[in-house]
Amino acid sequence: MMDMDPLDALVSAGLGAYQAGNYPKALAEFEKALQLAPEDQAVREAAAYSANKAEDWDSAASHWLEISKQNPRRVAPVNRYIAALLKARHFTEARAYCESGGFLQDPANRPRYYDLRLMISLSESKLVEAADLAAKGYALSPQDSTALAFASQFFDHGHYGEMRRWVARIKAPEQQKDAIKTLQARAFFAQKIWNKARRAWQAILETAPAPQADTARLFLARIAASTGRHEEAKKHFELILQKQPAHEEAISYFIRAELLNNNETGARRLIDRHWDALDPIRRLQLKARSFATSDPLAGAQVFLDALESQPENITLELAHIRFLLDLKNVTIAEERIRTLIDLRPAHFELNLLYLQCLQMQDAPVERQLEQAEATLALAPADASLLNTVGTLLARNNRRADAAEHYQAAIKIAPGDAVLWRNGTYHLATEDRLQDAADFAATAIKTLGTDSPEQLTNTAWILLAARQTKFALEHANAAIKLDPASASAHEMAANVHMDEGRYDLAWDHIQKIDALVFPRRPEKIAHLAAQCMAAFRAMSDEGAPIAPPVKGLFPEQLFHAMVKRAMPDISGQRRGIMHVSSSLAVGGAERQVAYAIQGLMRRPDSAEPCSLVVSSLNPQTGHDFFRPGIERAGVEIVDLERLRQSARIRRILADFPAHARTVRQLASLPREASRVAIPLFAHLLETRPRVVHLWQDAVNIAAGIAAVSAGVPKIVLCTRSTRPTKMFRFRRYLFEGYQALRNYSGTVLMVNNSANGAHDYEAWLGLPAGSIHPFYNGYDFAAIRANATPTDRQSIRRQCGIPKSAAVIGGVMRFTSEKRPDLWVQTLMASIARAPDTHGLLVGEGPMQGMLMQMVKAAGLEGRIHFAGRQTPIEPWMRAMDILFLSSATEGLPNVLIEAQALGLPVASMNVGGAPEAIRAGETGLILEEAAPDILAQHIGALLQDSARMAAMSAAAVRFVEGRFSLETMVAALETLYETA
Fold first, then answer.
1. Which residues face 864 on adjacent strands?
2. Which domains does the chain have, with CATH numbers?
3. Beta strand residue intervals within 801-895, DSSP E
4. Widest distance between CA atoms in the chain
5. Looking at the DSSP assignment, which residues form a beta bridge with residue 552?
6. Alpha carbon of 127 to those of 135, 284, 791: distances in Å?
7. 980 falls in which pLDDT band (50, 70, 90)?
8. Which of 37, 100, 244, 386 has a C-alpha 20 to 30 A away from that of 198?
């Protein structure tokens, strides 16, 4: 027997590997064969198809390009070449190919050029550009086939409004009716409009010839399976198998049905019977799941056995990792990923799975962000990853950075509505409402408002900008264009619920139900549950279920619950319970920690002190002040953990009389109910005498829980200013406060400054004196311990500031309300008046680039120093001679008090609580609004008066220790708790 020809041997090996599902090996064998026969087109196509199956998109693109060069008139190789480039996210290369001249520039091939360019633009989420390209392509070839092709492309990328617009351009719809009906039926299915999809496919099944009828039956099977009609799905799939015994989807359905019925043996019997009909990866997935039902390790072993014979099969490895993640076996999945990433650091799917792994592990946000950014670097135009990075920046308390990120992201993927919406939202949460409105306006121009989908997307964006009226107008316009648009009705329902009009939202939910029956999407089910819970909460016990309550909700519920609540004045209660949202780095959280530690130091303390927080999650930094509180001997109750335990259910079971109250609390918006329900249970069990609440949202959610639990004395600690800033804003806070003040027990409202108290009084319409000033307390010993005598000279040396120079300092976030531009302009004027003056600005923020450009343009880069964000801050204050606060608005500025504690004179604009933090003329300057040169004149005059500076330094220390010491704060607390 003669030896096989080397080329034939390689091709045979490649074919064997392909049939076995080992596509990387098949690709390798075919590429070896091409080295012997580079012109063999059959081998080249085998390599290209193997690369596609192996998802090796770079290799696939290379092979399809070579095939297209051999026969440039063939459409399929060019399409597959561009598709491979897009899969590999080589958008620039794909565009360059289309523009490179050659046959695509031939007038006869221009329709094909526009078809490919449209595919590229849609893959990049550049919808406006795509619409323009389609219009140009159609103008060149105004045929129904062109319009239908463009409609199909827009459908493939989920732009159903654009799809319908192109269908409407078809001049002879009767001639294209079958294709149009199929496309519309596909669109109903893709949007999960089940009733319409079912009717459309049923009509095709009854009237279309065999191929289209077979497709219709498949979609009817899918619809039945998706909506829980499994007997109907089974019948359709059985009919499909009668005509096509090797139909993979039908076979897979019956295997999965056996798995759902826990019939592992039956599932494996079907897998073995149809082994050859199943895709190699899919059959391994199904077989692994059949074992994993009873033995997860045995399921994983199925993949390990296959990998032993195909160690280079990255597609198989990825399937194995996804299988492990589905089983929640994250540790082993991570080990496999890390091993593979070491070998393939630039593999996009591996990096994406690693990010998923970190998210499932709830890894520190910084680590998730690092991996998300690394993955994004491999696919810079990936809209989903762009959004993930922005979300993680916000979770990392970098809201301003998130806003800037989204502004950059929409330049990369301008057609992605989610990026526009989130960018608008984060601008709004930074209180850049005009910027958010402008961003939303640009989004509307970019995305368009011609179709129901576009109008629905722009409605979401307008809602994110807090332009509720316009959001509802866009949603209603979408519904007018397409009354069957479930997403538009969902949008309208959300707007109405955001406004507290659950009755109006309910109308839209009912319309959605009529469209998607019998299965509500999860989001709609949640909205419906909220509406019905609201009705039950406001109805009398035993009342029949009816449409939700009219009027604002939960505002009405707050008043109803407070009206029915009765304080427990039996005298058997004991203890002071503090409640905070978290123990993250923040002014309110720090005061919580200081207050509890101060109370625990009392030598005569006979009453227990406890702390409850909504979240202590270390991954999000919510436990920053935890160690100090625990060292003080205080146990911290984490409501997030309590929600996840059985304890809350056990407690509530012990108090059956409060079941209705629990249902009422459950009907509150999710952010409120997540606090109110577990706290209510904890209050029933612990029965404290006083509950002290520390932030606006906590004041309302926990306050309602406290009055419902009969707590006789409640202290509501308000913030520096009323909650109008977007990240603090909740529509229902106003009525929540009004309701709590009507409690028949004792409710005291306090604020950390007289200015803040007046601001809340004006907002709530309360008489002057209704809210009591309660100054923050500071651990001055700890503040001073953070700095050493050598810090002044070492930091000056580091920044290049002479020992003898006068240094005007600033510590702030570089945002508009802090006016860092005024600070810089004042420093410029100060340097002009006294050339030996230097500026030292500590902080960061979105205005940093503009500030640094101002300094550079003035030639003062060596005189005004940007130190960035610094922790601890005290050493940097030691390097200053005076601290200047340029804010337009303030509460009680912590930075002024901390600076004075270090003996540093201060200067501040006359805003908010600043005058209460300074003894004007004795410890610092209170400056009225003026031009920068006037401000520089006042600050410069003080700097030049060394005797006055020395007197202010000593007076500053005495002043803050007298007004803001921990001892003073604790004494004030004890008075509050006695008189609360």
1. 839
2. 568-773 (3.40.50.2000), 786-964 (3.40.50.2000)
3. 806-811, 837-842, 864-868, 882-885
4. 110
5. 501
6. 12, 39, 56
7. very low
8. 244
Q: How far apart are CA 543 and CA 537, in angstroms?
A: 11
Cα–Cα distance for residue pair 594/602, rounded to 1 Å: 13
Selected residue with higher pLDDT from 865 and 530: 865
List the Cα angle 523/527/532 in 5-degree steps. 145
Residue 1: predicted pLDDT: 41
- From 472, 452, 450, select the one nearest 460 (Cα to Cα): 472
Q: Spell out the SS3 assignment of 486-535.
A: HHHHHHHHHHHHHCCEHHHHHHHHHHHHHHHCCCCCHHHHHHHHHHHHHH
In tens, the pLDDT along 727-760 reads 667 888 999 999 999 999 999 999 988 989 999 9
Mean predicted confidence (pLDDT) in 680-691? 93
> CA angle, corner 433, sides to 451 and 365, nearest 5?
90
- The pLDDT tens digits for 230-267 are 999 999 999 999 999 999 999 999 999 999 888 999 99
- Other beta carbons less than 10 A from residue 727's beta carbon: 12
Q: What distance in Å separates the CA atoms of residue 393 and residue 401, rounded to the nearest whole number?
A: 7
Count the neighbouring beta carbons within 10 Å of the beta carbon of residue 879: 24
Mean of the per-residue pLDDT values of the chain: 89
- 552 backbone dihedrals φ, ψ, rounded to 5°: -75, 135
What are 380-401's pLDDT values in tens digits? 888 899 999 999 998 877 777 8
d(CA 642, CA 685): 13
Q: Give, in order, the Cα–Cα distances in Å from 150 to each of 111, 114, 338, 851.
A: 11, 10, 42, 48
- pTM, rounded to two decimals: 0.75
Burial class (CB in 10 A: 0-12, 13-18, 19+), 968: middle
Distance from C-alpha of 58 to C-alpha of 65, rounded to nearest angstrom: 11
Report DSSP state, residue 609: E
Residue 73 CA: distances (Å) to CA of 77, 106, 112, 413? 9, 11, 11, 32
Q: Which two tokens stand for residue 441?
A: 């306006």
Dihedral angle over CA of 371, 373, 379, 380, nearest 10: 180
Q: Which of 639-648, 761-770, 853-862, 915-924 has the lowest mean pLDDT?
A: 639-648
> Which pLDDT score, from 0 to 100, does residue 69 have?
87
> CA dist 836 to 323, 743, 840, 852, Å?
67, 61, 13, 20
